[in-house]
What we know:
By secondary structure, the chain is α+β, with helices and mostly antiparallel strands.
Amino acid sequence: MGPKIVETALWLLLFGIANALPDDMPSEFEFMEYSTNVDDPKYRLLDNVRPTYFYVNLDVYLAESRFDGLVQAHVEVQQNVTQIVMHQNVVSIRAINVIDGSGRSVAVKDFDTDSYYEILNINFVNVVTPGNYIITINYLGRINENPHDRGFYKGYYYYGNVKREYATTQFQPYHARKAFPCFDEPQFKCPFVISITRDSNLRPSFSNMAINQTQVLQNRVRETFFPTPVISAYLIAFHVSDFVATNYTSTAEKPFQIVSREGPVDQHRYAAEVGVNITNQMSEFFDIDYYGTGQGQLMKNDHIALPDFPSGAMENWGMVNYREAYLLYHEDHTNVIDQIFIVSIIAHEMAHKWFGNLVTCFWWSNLWLNESFASYFEYFSAHLAHPALEIADRFVTAHVQRALTADAGASITPMNWTEVANTSTITANFGTSSYTKGSSVLRMLEHFVGYVTFRNALRYYLKDNLYGIGYPVDMYNAFRRAVAEDSSFQTSYPNIDIGAVFESWVQNPGSPVINVDVNMRTGLINITQERFQLTGTPRDTIWQIPLTWTHGGNPNFENLKPSLVLTTKSTTIQKEAGHHWVLFNNQHSGLYRVNYDDHNWEMIASQLRRNKNVIHRLNRAQITNDVLFFVRAGKISIRRAFDVLSYMKDESDYYAWNRALIQLDWIRRRLEHLPAAHEEFSKYLLSQMQGAIDQLGYEERSNDTASDIQSRMQIMDYACELGHEGCIADSLNKWRQFRTNASYMVPKNARRYVYCTGLREGNAEDFEFLFNRYNNSEHASDMVVMLRTLACTKHQASLRTYLHQTLHNDKIRVHDKNNAFSYALQGNRENLRTVLEFLYSNYREIEEKYGGRARLSTAIQALATYLTDFNDIVNFQSWLYREQVGLGAAFPAGVGVINSALRNLRWGNSVAVEIFENIRSTNTSASLAASISVLILALFVQLLR
């Protein structure tokens, strides 16, 4: 059906051009109301013209990076218009023809394009009245050669020594218009029929659906795919290449394929096994079978590994795109962190089949309706697929604490950001508020309403809006309906409106901290809530917060059902009298921080030192992260914070250390300009980590859990960086075996710190050895490890080679170039001057080779944490203003770096003496006094600047 319709469209196009009505206008034209379907601002379209069916035919010339396009858009006009507007960002529109539902030609006065708003205006001679129409557009398109430009873009890979090319798509959120004129907003949904014509030397193309018809046209092949279900344009996908597919499903009714370039076919199996499991788990949970969502056609389930991909992955219906490192798994080369990421990202993209594809957010301001649910299920359905990886527990560090970190900023946007209007604000909304915050809110609500009620609410939302669009109120009402059927909820929480609870988290920017004051004599607990910000005065904001808590007299961290909902600024709870610590937010199940009165903190610290295991490990993760943020915000004394953290000398748990290490390093970086304080703080960190090093050991054990392995990875990586003698000695032993024994492989989970130590303690030959391994590797995730650790070299000539390779070595993928720049800064303190010289001399080429002005800005922004010397800041500022014109839109990023660096210095100066006093408190008073005198003198010198 597809090719015949396209041929008919071509004929109608030619016929329409030859027989168009003359350009004379009726006399009343100038008095007609000028009506259109474009909104204000012109980025948006009104819904008075809606697509009902789309045919897209692309004639692809891969080697020439171009294609010829023909679109046939079936639309329903719902009110009189004199203009129909579509989105476009193609090379040129060659011709347009319009016919009505009876096949009669509709006179097109003219058409024009607007490159700023990326629209196509089709202007008619007469008023177009309500009804069905077919718009046929003949146009020319480009295959973008920079993957960061998205749309229909080109990538490459090597098979042996032969360079091969492919073309694929990334349309979210507004890049479908680069491949074909369309209604490029999520609300406009309809079926699509895709037809791709390609060179015959390539393998069959891929799209959302299976191939329906193949036509051989001399040395060209046209493949027309089955119609998609009702779908938004951003979810359309196609792929032209010589890639190969491996089908791991035994039944034709449930196909599942992993697709990649030829080389790493042996890395397909793991993703297929977990992917099939995840698909089945979600089909059952939602009570909607994935394979039955094709509206009459069997849904495909293809997952494609791409050497070049600007995003992590993309949930195109039937054809999910991934970076290679996020899909391909090799038993000997993929470490546990990357293994976890493979499982979780497959789960994320599969969850989108229901949340995003089947039911789509109306507009990008409601992006959380897509992304929050995908981010939630990326952990909890992944956990069901591979429980041993402990992915559900990782949610706390990976999402809850990341969301709280982002929400501590004064300028963070809410989940439902109504100001999303144009391309820049659309892009900005693809951030932590829509992903990690939204998913953390969902986890809190699941514990609040219970598993079954939560599941029922999601089923109601999906089934009530099947193949349509969703609004926040639809979600709130689905929860209201599910809760109304749950008598236990009504009993436990009378007069609580679950929709209002949900909405308070969606609409309020930021996240709360609850302040808890415990009267040990009476047992009365006073609670107040406020927005937590690191700086500035927060607005007075009220959340409806489901609260869980326990106490030292009868600790119970397993009860995650909230005991009450805090709906006002403050409340009180009466517990039995007794001298017991109190802890809120069991297992960190809620999206809020908790700050206690000083005595309660003192008791928590004492409990942790006596027996830390009385307190759940996820609450230990909460405590260590919270107190360090309270230090940064000035909400807790440094003395008390270090008292709480003192127990960590006996802590080896991954979750307790994970975010704490990030914050402790944040403090350490801000003391670099004060050598005495910086050295003392580094010694303090090593002493704190020694217990974990002793407990974990240097070798992986057969009974290690996934979190044991991850804990060893993060502890050893940091310990070696700080100069821990045992860590360095063991790493060098492994590194030297790797260098000299061809049959020896460094254990995959130790490579990050072993490789880094080998290069940090080595020379140019060590760098060349690992760089050659990188260039010859077929394992994408291991290549990322090597790229990271190559930057650990202290040999500055090698580091310069590394940086210049980011410009000229096509084995370093465009999506890895900015990462490599950051890795060079992270590698050693000594690297900063070399990186700055590289930036100063090559910023124009960095912009070009890294993928554009935005990538240059990203590279510049990476400097903020590492500019810790005042002279370096002054020199950077001089360069920035000297090159202001050439830097263009990247200039503000540099100004931000200067401001951030100066704030870092000021913060370090403000706390240095107190931190120094606390970490030296066990020393003799004379020694301490002498050391503090030296530190104060150093501070005085810094302040004089």
